[in-house]
Each structure stands twice: as C-alpha cells, then as structure tokens.
Amino acid sequence: MPLPAFLLVSMRQAHHQLTVFSSQGRSLYEFTRELRDWVSSTDIQVGMLTVFIQHTSASLLIQENADPTVRADLERFLARLVPDGDPIFQHRQEGPDDMSAHVRTALTQIYLVIPVVGGAPVLGTWQGVFLYEHRYEPQRRKVLLHLIGE
Amino acid sequence: MPLPAFLLVSMRQAHHQLTVFSSQGRSLYEFTRELRDWVSSTDIQVGMLTVFIQHTSASLLIQENADPTVRADLERFLARLVPDGDPIFQHRQEGPDDMSAHVRTALTQIYLVIPVVGGAPVLGTWQGVFLYEHRYEPQRRKVLLHLIGE
Amino acid sequence: MPLPAFLLVSMRQAHHQLTVFSSQGRSLYEFTRELRDWVSSTDIQVGMLTVFIQHTSASLLIQENADPTVRADLERFLARLVPDGDPIFQHRQEGPDDMSAHVRTALTQIYLVIPVVGGAPVLGTWQGVFLYEHRYEPQRRKVLLHLIGE
After folding, report:
1. Average of per-residue pLDDT values in chain C
2. Which of A148, B42, C47, C56 is in Cβ range 3.0-4.6 Å of B14 for a Cys bridge?
3. If DSSP codes are grouped into helix, strand and coil, which group holds residue C30?
4. 0.95 cut: is pTM over it?
C-alpha cells in the first residue's frame, strides 16, 4: 500500500538572508514583522526558527515591545555597566565603542531560537524581536534566518 | 524495491505548552523532571529540544542543581548588579522589580536548546533546567517545548 | 509514479561528542576548525547546528577571532564584574573561582545554534567559536555537537 506523498516530502527547510540597517547607530531596531512575513512566506506551519547575526558588535534580543522606555532603560543600564572607552580595554582601534560593543554582545545573544506553531513564531503578547546595534555609527547588519519544519 | 516504511515517517516533531507556577515569586524553579518526562513521552530518541518562555520578565537557565547555595549566590549577585528601583529606570509602572526583571532577562536567556540522544536531553551530571522568576509576585509562566527528531 | 529515493531519506541527523582540553585554565579556546571539520564530515549541506557544553562553569561563545586583545579585554571585564572570592558567595568549596565560574556561565551561554549553508556554519568573517573556561585549573570539557539537515 503506497503511503501518501506528503509524508515523503513534509519535513523541509528554508533559509534567507535579511539585512537590517541600523540607521540611527546605537539603538534597538525591531524586525518582528519582517520575521513573521518571512515565516509566513515559507508555508511551514510547525517548526523551529533560528535567527543568527553574522557580527560580533551587534546582538539579537527578544524584549518587551509595548513601552519604548524599556529599551531606553536597558540602554542606560548597559552604558553604565560597560563604559565606552573603559581604560581596561586595549582593543580600541575603531574608537571608544569598539570593545564595549564586543562585551555587550557577549553579555546578550547573537542568535535566537523560536518555535513556530500555526505558521507563526510563538512569541508572547509583549515579545518583539530586535537587533541591538552597539556601535555609534549606522551599519548594515546581515541576519540569517533558517527554518526547519513541515 | 520498496524502502522500509520507517524511513518515510521517521523525522517528526512534537510540541507542548508547559505552565510553570512561580509560587514563591523571585526565585529559581527546577523543571528538569517535567522536561525529561515530556521528551520521553514523545518516543523521539535523537533530536533537538527547544524550550522557549513567552515572557520578558522571567528567564530560562541551565545551572548547577546539586548545591542550592549556587542559586542563592546567583540571586545575590544579580540583585546587586541590577538594583530594583534603580533611579536610571523610567519604566516602573508595575513597581521597583519591573524594569530590573527586564534587564535580568536580557542578561540571561529566554530559550534553551538541548540535543536529545538516547531519548533524553544530554544534560551533564550537575545540570538542571530552571525557570528564573524575576518578579516579586508569583506568576503563571508559559513555557513552550518543541522537539524535532526521530 | 515513484518519487526519487533521495526525498525519502534526505533529512537526517548526526551527533558527536568533542572534548576540549582547557590546558591553560581560565581562558578562551577556539575550536572553529574542529567544528567546521565535523560539519564537513557529515556531508549535510543545509541544516541547523547545535553546540552544547555539559558543564556549568565553562561557556561557549562566538566572538571576534582576529585580534587577541578582544579576548583579553573581555576577560578583564568579566574578572572585574564577577570578582573571584566575592564575600557575597557562600558556594566556595572548590575555591574562589568556583561560584564566579557559575555566574560567568549564567551571564554568557552554554549552547550555540548556528545555521549551516553550503556545508559550513554561516559564521561571519570575524566570528570564531570558543570554549570559555572559567576555572583556574585545566579541565577536560565535553561538548556535544548535533546537526539536523539534508
């Protein structure tokens, strides 16, 4: 008895490179909508989504997206915790925000993993997905999206 | 020559929503056993397990589970690093533990990824899986489990 | 009409246990080459790679691998942020680096997730994969690699 064809080809993968332009320099840039749109375009209903940033001076973060003061407070906290131009830093070729950007990245994340159910990432009501630019100057950041599922 | 049927359907997924009640408020709550039990119930032997918390003021953490002083010390460290009611915080609608909970979450993780081998997460001898509640009051926290494998 | 056989068996998994010897004690140890070699050996072209360390006093980190002062600066920063032998720590059976190693691990990561495209992890130009040993003494650290893809 032949098995239905969809069993044979059901599990599959998709990947896509997204560019996020951090136009204002150091700040948080939400790209939840771009992420949802891409997941939706793959037609994968259930799976596992990975978001990976190919840099070491910018982070990915899932945070509260309703009240912008959360991001402002987080930035103030990190600016105090990891002082730009800290005299203990020797790596400063690209300015006072060079090494602090690496440390901020080490203390946060450069990849996110989010289950997909019902064709969408299972983000909670208040969760948004952000690129956190740690350099002062605007940058074009490459973010790789990968989804495996069916 | 027909291929054996198990090849056709071997790779599959399972997902489940777990609720963890942080009954004592700010503290670490181990749910390693619930996680192992659910993985075991799926009958998936080899795969990749994702644990994702749908909130921005509680974390997931894999830590030493033998000596409870590790968790007490970690809490003392974070309480000093991220002071509740810090005057630099403007987001304080829900009290002095509101913004500090967001910062603690940003500095830790809201998802875990653990390979599964032999029908169980490959945790080391001393590794336990915890929900880290950062708010003072008890909360019901939604944790999504996702497993892909065969 | 029969479907081609490669559809039936294309999605698959591989896993491997790697041992990283932190021969100089507290420091960062790059193992990007070992990781690339293992991915290459699986013949999986597109997939999702998980790297998981089965310990709670050493981390995994993706960081700048060109200039060694980045790692030295990161270590100086963490040594100041999480003082060894901090009087607030009660868990000190194994010495002043015992609890600080757990805190450093909580503030960084014990697993990495990296998409694989073209038979290789999609690391950026300056990204290297490191084991971050937080104990003073050399240790043999078990790192589990898992790859799912096709």
Report:
1. 93
2. B42
3. strand
4. no
- CATH architecture, domain C5-85+93-149: Sandwich (2.60)
Banded model confidence at residue C22, pLDDT cuts 50, 70, 90: very high
Q: Which residues have C-beta within 8 Å of that of residue A119, sequence separation ≥ 6?
A: A39, A40, A43, A44, A45
The pLDDT > 70 percentage for chain A reads 94
Which residues in chain A have Cβ-Cβ distances shorter than 8 Å to B52? 113-115, 122
Burial of B23 (0-12, 13-18, 19+ CB in 10 A): exposed
ipTM of the complex model: 0.92
Q: Does A103 contact chain C (CB < 8 Å)? A: yes
Count Cβ atoms below 10 Å from residue B85 Cβ, excluding itself: 12
| Cβ of residue A32 closer than 8 Å to a chain B Cβ | no
Between 3.40.250.10, 2.60.40.3140, 2.60.120.460, 3.40.50.1220, what CATH number should domain B5-149 receive?
Answer: 2.60.120.460
Q: Which residue has the tokens 């795969």?
A: B47
pLDDT of residue A3 exceeding 60, the answer is no
CA-nearest of C110, C57, C109 to C84 is: C57
Interface partners of C (3+ CB pairs, < 8 Å)? A, B
Residues 6+ apart with CB under 8 A from B25: B133, B135, B136, B137, B138
